Amino acid sequence: MVDVAGIFKAYDVRGVVPEQLDETVARAAGAAFVEVLDVLAGPGAVVIGYDMRPSSPALAAAFAEGVTSTGADVIDIGLASTDQLYFASGRLDLPGAMFTASHNPAQYNGIKMCRAGAAPVGADSGLRDIADLVAKALTEGPATGSTPGHLTHKDLLTAYADHLHDLVDLSGIRPLTVVVDAGNGMGGHTVPAVFADGPVTIIPMYFELDGNFPNHEANPLDPKNLVDLQAKVRETGADLGLAFDGDADRCFVVDEQGDPISPSAITAAVAVRELAKHPGATILHNLITSKAVPELIAEHGGVPVRTRVGHSNIKQKMAETDAVFGGEHSAHYYFRDFWRADTGMLAALHVLAALGEQDRPAGELFAEYERYVASGEINNKVADAAETVAAIEDTYSGRSETDGVTIDHLDGLTVSAGQWWFNVRASNTEPLLRLNVEAADRAGMERVRDEVLALITGASVEEN
């Protein structure tokens, strides 16, 4: 029997195919999705897309069978990036399901679900209920008796590209040459459509759709997967390099020297651009982004709001605050004008517009948004994450009066002082404790990092 609870994570569904996720599970998930979201009483249809993984078409078809078995209709947009699926959900005002395992290795697949208008489906907003119904269907068998719904196919790739162009117009920028590493993922599908015309010349890398990832993992957050892009940027003298993850909802940037530009700097740069259009607006940033992000938002007249990590949290907070934009340290970027959904492609267009509207090279331009030194995310497997976090808190709580240390629990444990801060939190999807440290200089960062790591590794079962 499939461990349903094990593959239904905090924000999506993810598992090894076919041992954990197969067509039977996908079919049950489709029927459960209709029931939990009350699709038959509302829009009456679900939009479905899928990525380039070998198992994706069959899993998407099985999910569609589950949906139509209830009497609801399906609109199949075919091969798509995750943000293209969010576009379809927003444009058609339908709940949606995207078959992808994002940046995970080839043996995985999964489902990202959303309500109509790309609103999130998270653990507390339907995902647990869907998991319960799937587990029930796998035990008792699927319900029968409904008149089946209909399936239609709809190509929305051009409409997706047109919508992005409406939001960020590149027609007036100086000519740019940009290397794009699609990692054999869905960027190879969307980038040609988005950049078909205009002043940006694309040098493509690994645009062939191949869910076996023959060149490198489609996970640009890992520095080893940026090496090819960095070399190609230097070799060609390009103005910039972009790397997309497997489902192309995240975008990473390197400058003309091949040096990575941090997602915090991108968040700050896009925030400044959005504030120029929407003076005084609210901008969200998760608590792992650089301290420079809220500083720059405030300096440009905006209202910075600090949030927990994760797209469900950010989308909910965007709705509550009417924020125009939000950014995460993991290179997820959210836009009010894109149904509050995350889209790496729209962030990339903002980056290119910022670069092309002035004459300085990328490294010099984006250095304006880098003020501190960060450790990057450091992951460790520990025997008991809660116990380890409690021990770290005990160590630092006694310093509050003498060292000006403050502690908060917005998401995990954050400890901060005047010149540094760190956060430790348990992963929602993996058995890991994540550490992020930032300080005014490298020596300060390394001192705090090593001090906290000593506490963590004392409880470690394995460093990852």
Can you offer a commentary on this structure?
It comes from Kribbella aluminosa. Its cofactor is Mg(2+). By secondary structure, this protein is an alpha/beta fold. It contains 16 helices and 23 strands. The chain has helices at 4-7, 23-36, 56-69, 82-92, 123-140, 157-167, 187-194, 227-236, 263-277, 292-299, 311-321, 344-356, 362-366, 385-397, 400-403, 442-457, and strands at 13-16, 45-50, 73-79, 96-99, 108-114, 151-153, 176-181, 200-205, 240-244, 251-254, 260-261, 282-286, 303-307, 325-327, 333-335, 341-342, 373-374, 378-382, 406-408, 413-416, 420-426, 433-439, 460-463. Strands 17, 18, 19, 20, 21, 22 and 23 form a 7-stranded antiparallel β-sheet that branches. The longest helix is centred in the N-terminal third of the chain and has 18 residues, at 123-140. Mean pLDDT is 94; it is low at 459-464.
Mean pLDDT: 94
Main pleated sheet: 7 strands, antiparallel
Computed over alpha carbons, the radius of gyration is: 22 Å
What percent of the residues sit in helical stretches (DSSP H or I)? 25-40%
Q: Alpha-carbon distance between the termini?
A: 30 Å
Give me the count of strands: 23
